[in-house]
Input
Amino acid sequence: MADYDLLVIGTGPGGYVCAIKAAQLGLKVGVVEKRATHGGTCLNIGCIPSKALLHTSELFEEAGHSFEDFGIKVGKPKLDLKSMMGHKQKTIDGNVGGIDYLFKKNKITAHHGTGRILSPGRVEVKADDDSTTILEAKSIVIATGSDVAPLPGVEIDEKQVVSSTGALELDKVPGKLIVVGAGVIGLELGSVWRRLGSEVVVVEFMDKILGPMDADVSRNFQRILKKQGMTFHLSSKVTAVEKKGKQLAVTVEPAAGGEAAAETLEADVVLVAIGRRPVTAGLGLEEAGVALDDRGRVKTDAHYQTNVPGIYAIGDVIAGPMLAHKAEDEGVALAEILAGQAGHVNYGVIPGVVYTSPEVADVGKTEEQLKAEGIDYKVGKFAFMANGRAKAMNHTEGFVKVLADKETDKVLGVHIIGHGAGEMIHEAAVLMEFGGSSEDLARTCHAHPTMSEAVKEAAMAAFAKPIHA
Ligand code: FAD
Ligand code: NAI
Output
């Protein structure tokens, strides 16, 4: 008899959620994790610690720059970075401890060690002392997540040249921080260190920041970040980082090439944030015959099964956005499928949030995607400048943009820059999940005074006319 109905390799948001859901549905579940604590990238070195630092650094900046506007005099705030990092660690500990509790509650057995698939149904677990155990399971789930994509020729030492992991642990505020990549990590962690006092310069390969986002959002958000003090070198790439004692000499060239136009920038710390790549090495995939796609991700069918029956994969290690909630929803869907139910993820309605200040959030299609797909659409836009609550809080930057089908009025995409955008986006997600129209949204009573009234007004602007603009 197999040890488990289901054995999950990796306990990030994909793996741990899949394990819990499967146990709730009556399966006997085991997990294998090589990290000392559960929760994967997200809880240990990703979503959670970055949000702890984003929150505390935002408070620090507000205390120094915004309180006085509200009549609160506190003097110049002093940074205690060690305590700030202590809060971050406490947040991590609380969250990873929560997973231990949930595993126990759901009678899930956790094996500590590195998992390797020997054949369908058999996994070897190598412990830190090199001892091995063989586990048998009817189904195996690969949920090994992703890791930092390296920048060719640039060595990450996590001290001077850091990935997101090192950028979450710096022991002093860098005088000058160069961020390579204007994606989500670069802009979130760049914001953290700028608020704490660094001069932040961002070098981005493309001609816009936050590449996949709506161009209107990207343009406006760049303007906001620039006003906050970030500098941008777009259509540029970093080709070398040279250590000169405590300083770094960073070579920046036009993205299109051209050494002649190269310039050298000095920095104390360089953050490499040019994307992440799936973790598949050492898992025995080749030996087990598990196929990868052209970008090195585990290939699955619509039910998360690989080409080898009984071996499944979810989360960052497969195609799709590398987001914790996407991984979690795949975990739930797969557990349901394995328990004989109809699990499903709607990939058209996965919200994305950048937790900067203001936040940026979107769900559904961008204008560029609608144009490329030849879909006729209408746009409803409303600025927070005209929202009463935003004015009361001095959070008037940004807007809500609703994109709806020209003929049917069905909402196809919603894009928000604004304080609390990451919370507001969910009313758009629910609406879209139910196939709602901009009129449905506009006719839904919204409490006053809330930032969310701007979502209603943007919907009104798409279907009729806004009241307050
Ligand atoms: P992971 O979380 O990467 O977990 C995989 C686990 O598998 C790891 O614990 C690893 O140790 C383990 N593992 C790997 N190989 C083996 C093996 N052979 N044997 C045993 N164990 C193994 N996403 C959001 O949605 N919101 C955010 O705010 C956000 N912020 C982020 C901030 C940063 C700095 C980073 C780096 C990422 C952030 N992400 C965010 C992305 C998010 O962390 C990932 O999308 C998510 O963690 C993916 O979950 P996963 O379960 O697929 O993989
Ligand atoms: P990303 O894919 O978001 O952005 C990387 C950026 O680097 C792109 O704009 C790309 O054009 C640029 N780039 C690539 N090569 C370059 C080069 N040589 N020189 C200059 N620029 C270059 O990747 P990022 O920010 O590393 O994040 C990785 C993943 O983690 C993302 O997929 C994201 O979804 C996830 N994440 C999500 C967060 C959230 O949901 N709030 C927060 C942080 C990470």
Remarks:
- Residues 352-463 form a domain with the Enolase-like; domain 1 fold (CATH 3.30.390.30).
- The mean pLDDT is 97.
- The chain is about 30% helix and 25% strand.
- The chain has three domains: 4-148+277-338, 161-274, 352-463.
